[in-house]
Task: structure prediction
Amino acid sequence: MTTERSTLFVKPAYFRAILLFCLFSLGAALWFRTIPKVENYEQKRASVRLKMLQDLRIEDEKKLNHYAWIDQKKGGVQIPVNRAEEIVIAELKTKNAQPTAIKVEVPYPSGLQQAPSSLPQEVKK
Result:
């Protein structure tokens, strides 16, 4: 009779232990969720770098797309890139193409290969 009685007490004891462990785990999980998250070093560093990148992009956008004074005394201004392209293209369209007046030396080291004496017939046309 004692063996039946001891087995009856063992089963509820295991059940109680498992139930107690589950309740403890649930309580611990809920407690850890309520703790506010603290930024670690890498997260702080990433947020600072992201802020710096945003500031840099704003500054670049202003430099690329807005007019501004660089030096008022000398008359230097900053103009948007698109406008500068338009000005340069218009200026280049008014100029005639001509050969350069810069003297070019032979690009080959002495003794390796001779520079071509004249242009091929295909290029002269």
Notes: The first helix runs from residue 2 to 34.
